[in-house]
Amino acid sequence: MNLIEAFDIRNDEVISIVGGGGKTTLMFALARELVARGHKVITTTTTRIGSGEPDKFNASLLLEEDERILLSTLPENLFNYAHLTVVRQISPEKDKLLGYPPEVIDRIAKIGLADIIVEADGARGKPIKAPNATEPVIPSSTTLVIPVVGMDALGTRLTEENAFRPEIISKLTGLKPGEPITEDTIVTLITHPQGITKGSPKTARIIPLLNKADKSKTPAAESIARKILEKGNPRIQKVVLGQVQSKDPIIKVISK
After folding, report:
1. 147 near 198, Cβ under 8 Å?
2. Distance separating alpha carbons of residues 165 and 184, to the nearest angstrom
3. Contacts of 91 (CB under 8 A, 6+ apart)
4. SS3 label, residue 18
5. pLDDT digits (tens, 9 = 90+) for 84-121
6. Is the whole model's pTM more than 0.85, yes or no?
7. Residues 48, 102, 110, CA angle at the centre, nearest 5°?
8. What is the CATH number of domain 3-255?
9. For the residues 8-31, what does the mean pLDDT come to?
Protein backbone atom coordinates (compact mmCIF):
# COMPACT_ATOMS: atom_id res chain seq x y z
CA MET A 1 0.00 0.00 0.00
CA ASN A 2 1.24 3.49 -0.86
CA LEU A 3 0.45 6.88 0.67
CA ILE A 4 -2.27 7.70 -1.85
CA GLU A 5 -4.14 4.49 -1.01
CA ALA A 6 -3.58 4.73 2.75
CA PHE A 7 -4.96 8.27 2.92
CA ASP A 8 -7.68 7.77 0.28
CA ILE A 9 -6.40 10.72 -1.74
CA ARG A 10 -9.00 12.02 -4.16
CA ASN A 11 -8.82 14.39 -7.12
CA ASP A 12 -8.32 18.09 -6.37
CA GLU A 13 -7.63 17.58 -2.69
CA VAL A 14 -6.42 20.35 -0.41
CA ILE A 15 -4.41 18.50 2.22
CA SER A 16 -3.24 20.23 5.39
CA ILE A 17 -0.53 18.49 7.40
CA VAL A 18 -0.16 19.43 11.07
CA GLY A 19 1.71 18.21 14.15
CA GLY A 20 5.32 17.03 14.29
CA GLY A 21 7.54 14.11 13.41
CA GLY A 22 7.80 14.17 9.62
CA LYS A 23 5.37 16.69 8.10
CA THR A 24 7.70 18.00 5.40
CA THR A 25 8.84 14.53 4.39
CA LEU A 26 5.20 13.42 4.15
CA MET A 27 4.25 16.46 2.07
CA PHE A 28 6.92 15.82 -0.55
CA ALA A 29 6.48 12.03 -0.51
CA LEU A 30 2.76 12.47 -1.24
CA ALA A 31 3.58 14.93 -4.00
CA ARG A 32 6.00 12.47 -5.57
CA GLU A 33 3.38 9.71 -5.64
CA LEU A 34 0.73 12.01 -7.09
CA VAL A 35 3.04 13.26 -9.84
CA ALA A 36 3.90 9.65 -10.71
CA ARG A 37 0.17 9.11 -11.29
CA GLY A 38 -0.05 12.07 -13.64
CA HIS A 39 -1.36 14.69 -11.20
CA LYS A 40 -0.32 18.31 -11.03
CA VAL A 41 0.71 19.19 -7.47
CA ILE A 42 1.34 22.37 -5.50
CA THR A 43 3.21 22.10 -2.22
CA THR A 44 3.23 25.13 0.05
CA THR A 45 2.92 26.33 3.62
CA THR A 46 0.88 28.76 5.68
CA THR A 47 3.87 29.12 8.01
CA ARG A 48 7.42 28.29 6.88
CA ILE A 49 9.57 25.41 5.70
CA GLY A 50 13.32 24.97 5.38
CA SER A 51 14.79 26.74 2.36
CA GLY A 52 16.55 23.58 1.18
CA GLU A 53 13.51 21.31 1.23
CA PRO A 54 12.19 21.80 -2.35
CA ASP A 55 15.65 21.14 -3.81
CA LYS A 56 16.13 18.15 -1.51
CA PHE A 57 12.93 16.61 -2.89
CA ASN A 58 13.48 17.73 -6.51
CA ALA A 59 10.56 20.16 -6.55
CA SER A 60 10.50 23.26 -8.74
CA LEU A 61 10.36 26.44 -6.65
CA LEU A 62 8.06 29.35 -7.50
CA LEU A 63 8.80 32.44 -5.42
CA GLU A 64 6.13 35.14 -5.77
CA GLU A 65 5.11 37.77 -3.24
CA ASP A 66 2.43 39.42 -5.37
CA GLU A 67 -0.77 37.38 -5.11
CA ARG A 68 -2.20 38.80 -8.34
CA ILE A 69 0.87 37.74 -10.32
CA LEU A 70 0.91 34.37 -8.56
CA LEU A 71 -2.68 33.55 -9.49
CA SER A 72 -2.37 34.80 -13.08
CA THR A 73 0.82 32.84 -13.81
CA LEU A 74 -0.05 29.57 -12.07
CA PRO A 75 -1.79 28.00 -15.11
CA GLU A 76 1.30 28.49 -17.31
CA ASN A 77 3.68 27.36 -14.58
CA LEU A 78 1.64 24.22 -13.91
CA PHE A 79 1.61 23.49 -17.64
CA ASN A 80 5.40 23.54 -17.58
CA TYR A 81 5.98 21.81 -14.24
CA ALA A 82 4.13 18.88 -12.70
CA HIS A 83 5.14 19.82 -9.16
CA LEU A 84 5.59 23.35 -7.87
CA THR A 85 6.55 24.46 -4.38
CA VAL A 86 4.95 27.88 -4.14
CA VAL A 87 6.08 30.37 -1.47
CA ARG A 88 5.87 34.08 -0.79
CA GLN A 89 9.47 34.94 0.04
CA ILE A 90 12.74 33.79 1.57
CA SER A 91 13.34 34.75 5.20
CA PRO A 92 15.98 37.44 5.85
CA GLU A 93 18.21 34.72 7.34
CA LYS A 94 17.73 32.77 4.07
CA ASP A 95 17.09 29.55 5.99
CA LYS A 96 13.30 29.47 5.62
CA LEU A 97 10.73 29.78 2.85
CA LEU A 98 7.75 31.82 4.02
CA GLY A 99 4.29 30.79 2.91
CA TYR A 100 0.95 32.48 2.30
CA PRO A 101 -2.02 33.34 4.51
CA PRO A 102 -4.70 30.62 4.36
CA GLU A 103 -7.07 32.75 2.31
CA VAL A 104 -4.49 32.86 -0.50
CA ILE A 105 -4.37 29.06 -0.47
CA ASP A 106 -8.17 29.09 -0.73
CA ARG A 107 -7.99 31.29 -3.82
CA ILE A 108 -5.34 29.02 -5.36
CA ALA A 109 -7.66 26.06 -4.68
CA LYS A 110 -10.51 27.78 -6.55
CA ILE A 111 -8.43 27.73 -9.73
CA GLY A 112 -8.68 23.93 -9.58
CA LEU A 113 -5.55 23.11 -11.55
CA ALA A 114 -3.71 20.94 -9.04
CA ASP A 115 -3.79 18.97 -5.83
CA ILE A 116 -2.55 21.21 -3.01
CA ILE A 117 -0.55 20.01 -0.01
CA VAL A 118 0.00 22.50 2.81
CA GLU A 119 2.31 22.32 5.79
CA ALA A 120 0.05 24.19 8.20
CA ASP A 121 2.16 24.57 11.34
CA GLY A 122 5.67 24.13 12.68
CA ALA A 123 7.26 21.87 15.30
CA ARG A 124 10.94 22.86 15.16
CA GLY A 125 11.90 19.32 14.27
CA LYS A 126 10.26 17.77 17.36
CA PRO A 127 8.24 14.55 17.07
CA ILE A 128 5.30 15.86 19.09
CA LYS A 129 3.71 19.25 19.69
CA ALA A 130 0.67 21.17 20.86
CA PRO A 131 -0.60 24.30 19.11
CA ASN A 132 -0.60 27.76 20.62
CA ALA A 133 -3.42 30.28 20.17
CA THR A 134 -2.44 31.12 16.58
CA GLU A 135 -1.90 27.54 15.35
CA PRO A 136 -2.47 25.56 13.27
CA VAL A 137 -3.09 27.74 10.20
CA ILE A 138 -5.42 25.53 8.18
CA PRO A 139 -7.06 26.90 5.00
CA SER A 140 -10.86 26.68 4.95
CA SER A 141 -10.68 24.90 1.57
CA THR A 142 -8.92 21.93 3.20
CA THR A 143 -10.55 18.60 2.40
CA LEU A 144 -8.16 16.34 4.34
CA VAL A 145 -6.25 17.04 7.55
CA ILE A 146 -3.35 14.74 8.44
CA PRO A 147 -2.17 15.14 12.05
CA VAL A 148 1.31 13.65 12.44
CA VAL A 149 3.02 12.39 15.58
CA GLY A 150 6.45 10.77 15.65
CA MET A 151 6.40 7.53 17.61
CA ASP A 152 9.94 8.29 18.75
CA ALA A 153 8.31 10.67 21.24
CA LEU A 154 6.75 7.76 23.14
CA GLY A 155 8.50 7.16 26.45
CA THR A 156 10.65 10.28 26.29
CA ARG A 157 10.34 12.98 28.93
CA LEU A 158 8.04 15.93 28.42
CA THR A 159 10.74 18.56 27.98
CA GLU A 160 11.63 21.18 25.39
CA GLU A 161 14.27 18.79 24.09
CA ASN A 162 11.65 16.21 23.10
CA ALA A 163 8.50 18.23 22.45
CA PHE A 164 7.43 21.57 20.98
CA ARG A 165 5.37 23.67 23.39
CA PRO A 166 5.60 21.16 26.27
CA GLU A 167 3.76 23.54 28.60
CA ILE A 168 0.68 23.40 26.35
CA ILE A 169 0.97 19.62 26.03
CA SER A 170 0.95 19.48 29.83
CA LYS A 171 -2.13 21.70 30.03
CA LEU A 172 -4.07 19.67 27.45
CA THR A 173 -3.12 16.18 28.64
CA GLY A 174 -2.46 16.54 32.36
CA LEU A 175 1.04 15.14 31.91
CA LYS A 176 3.45 16.92 34.21
CA PRO A 177 6.69 18.42 32.88
CA GLY A 178 9.45 15.82 32.94
CA GLU A 179 7.09 12.84 33.03
CA PRO A 180 7.29 10.20 30.24
CA ILE A 181 5.09 10.77 27.20
CA THR A 182 2.49 7.99 27.14
CA GLU A 183 0.10 6.46 24.64
CA ASP A 184 -2.72 8.48 26.21
CA THR A 185 -0.70 11.68 25.77
CA ILE A 186 -0.59 11.07 22.02
CA VAL A 187 -4.26 10.06 21.84
CA THR A 188 -5.31 13.24 23.64
CA LEU A 189 -3.20 15.52 21.46
CA ILE A 190 -4.80 14.07 18.33
CA THR A 191 -8.40 13.98 19.58
CA HIS A 192 -8.68 16.97 21.93
CA PRO A 193 -10.66 19.92 20.48
CA GLN A 194 -7.70 22.18 21.29
CA GLY A 195 -5.14 19.62 20.09
CA ILE A 196 -3.19 19.47 16.86
CA THR A 197 -6.26 19.38 14.59
CA LYS A 198 -7.75 22.50 16.19
CA GLY A 199 -9.50 24.69 13.63
CA SER A 200 -9.95 21.97 11.01
CA PRO A 201 -12.84 22.72 8.63
CA LYS A 202 -15.93 20.78 9.67
CA THR A 203 -16.20 19.15 6.25
CA ALA A 204 -12.59 17.93 6.18
CA ARG A 205 -11.69 14.29 6.79
CA ILE A 206 -9.08 13.64 9.48
CA ILE A 207 -6.65 10.74 9.06
CA PRO A 208 -3.88 10.67 11.69
CA LEU A 209 -0.40 9.40 10.88
CA LEU A 210 1.66 7.70 13.59
CA ASN A 211 5.05 8.06 11.94
CA LYS A 212 8.33 6.29 12.67
CA ALA A 213 6.34 3.25 13.78
CA ASP A 214 9.15 0.75 13.20
CA LYS A 215 9.03 -2.84 14.51
CA SER A 216 9.78 -1.88 18.09
CA LYS A 217 7.05 0.78 18.04
CA THR A 218 4.38 -0.99 15.98
CA PRO A 219 2.49 -2.64 18.89
CA ALA A 220 2.27 0.68 20.76
CA ALA A 221 1.21 2.48 17.57
CA GLU A 222 -1.57 -0.08 17.02
CA SER A 223 -2.75 0.47 20.59
CA ILE A 224 -2.76 4.24 20.12
CA ALA A 225 -4.65 3.92 16.84
CA ARG A 226 -7.38 1.83 18.45
CA LYS A 227 -7.70 4.27 21.34
CA ILE A 228 -8.08 7.14 18.87
CA LEU A 229 -10.84 5.30 17.00
CA GLU A 230 -12.56 4.39 20.29
CA LYS A 231 -13.00 8.12 20.98
CA GLY A 232 -15.70 7.98 18.32
CA ASN A 233 -14.91 11.08 16.29
CA PRO A 234 -16.98 10.52 13.13
CA ARG A 235 -14.38 12.35 11.03
CA ILE A 236 -11.62 9.90 12.02
CA GLN A 237 -12.40 6.58 10.36
CA LYS A 238 -8.84 5.25 10.17
CA VAL A 239 -5.32 5.76 11.50
CA VAL A 240 -2.21 5.20 9.40
CA LEU A 241 0.97 3.66 10.85
CA GLY A 242 3.99 4.56 8.78
CA GLN A 243 7.66 5.13 8.24
CA VAL A 244 7.37 7.94 5.73
CA GLN A 245 11.08 8.37 5.14
CA SER A 246 11.44 4.74 3.98
CA LYS A 247 10.92 3.22 0.54
CA ASP A 248 7.79 1.42 1.78
CA PRO A 249 6.13 4.18 3.82
CA ILE A 250 3.01 2.36 5.04
CA ILE A 251 3.25 -0.22 7.82
CA LYS A 252 -0.43 -0.72 8.58
CA VAL A 253 -3.82 1.01 8.43
CA ILE A 254 -6.15 0.59 11.41
CA SER A 255 -9.81 1.23 10.53
CA LYS A 256 -13.07 1.30 12.44
Report:
1. no
2. 17
3. 48, 51, 97, 98
4. strand
5. 999 999 998 888 999 999 999 999 999 999 999 999 99
6. yes
7. 125
8. 3.40.50
9. 95
